[in-house]
Design goal:
By secondary structure, this protein is an alpha+beta fold. It has a single domain, classed as Alpha-Beta Plaits (2-Layer Sandwich). It is built from 3 helices and 9 strands. The chain has helices spanning 40-55, 83-102, 121-137, and strands spanning 7-8, 18-19, 23-29, 59-66, 70-77, 114-118, 150-152, 154-156, 162-165. Helix 1 (40-55) runs antiparallel to helix 2. The longest helix has 20 residues, at 83-102.
Length: 174
């Protein structure tokens, strides 16, 4: 942490704070755990929204796993951004677009979200593996590589080992 690190507490739960440039594992669940997300066009809305957030310097996404009733993401928070601000943008836009696509009205996402700070490269890799194996743990597929609603900037080998980034870049500070 540098002396210039800014802690942001706006709209965060008690004891929670955002740090610009920090890495987070985020879980966002559907309202009443409705299993409506694992549909190709719905996941495209989710992936496209993460891409937009990255293109607009709100985040750098590392990993996105869309499960039927929740989304795991590993992100690096952009400069001047807070988790609450970024996730409000994500949830409001995706709710509007997914509801429109599914011809439904009402609440899509549960209130709030769950987040964990990722402070080491080892924790990053462990968290990527956790996300990668989630469809197997939930009984959706026998092999994680068979699950279609997953994106990651790192290659994940069949033995669930993390290898190099696909684009050769290194985002995690050493």
């Amino acid at each position: 942490m540098t002396p210039n690190t800014k802690y942001r507490r706006h709209h965060l739960h008690k004891g929670r704070f955002s740090i610009e440039g920090a890495y987070y594992h985020i879980v966002i669940c559907t309202h009443e755990r409705q299993k409506i997300l694992a549909i190709q066009d719905v996941t495209s809305i989710i992936f496209d929204t993460f891409d937009w957030l990255e293109e607009n310097n709100r985040i750098v996404w590392i990993c996105i796993m869309v499960m039927p009733d929740h989304v795991h993401s590993i992100i690096k928070l952009g400069q001047g951004q807070t988790l609450s601000k970024v996730l409000h943008s994500f949830k409001s836009f995706t709710a509007r677009e997914i509801n429109k696509y599914l011809s439904r009205i009402g609440q899509l996402w549960q209130k709030g979200y769950t987040d964990w700070g990722i402070r080491t490269e080892a924790t990053l890799y462990k968290t990527i593996r956790y996300c990668y194996e989630n469809p197997v743990r939930k009984g959706l597929v026998k092999n994680p590589e068979d699950y279609p609603y997953w994106r990651c900037v790192y290659d994940v080998e069949s033995e669930y080992n993390i290898s190099t980034r696909k684009d050769g870049a290194v985002y995690f500070p050493r």
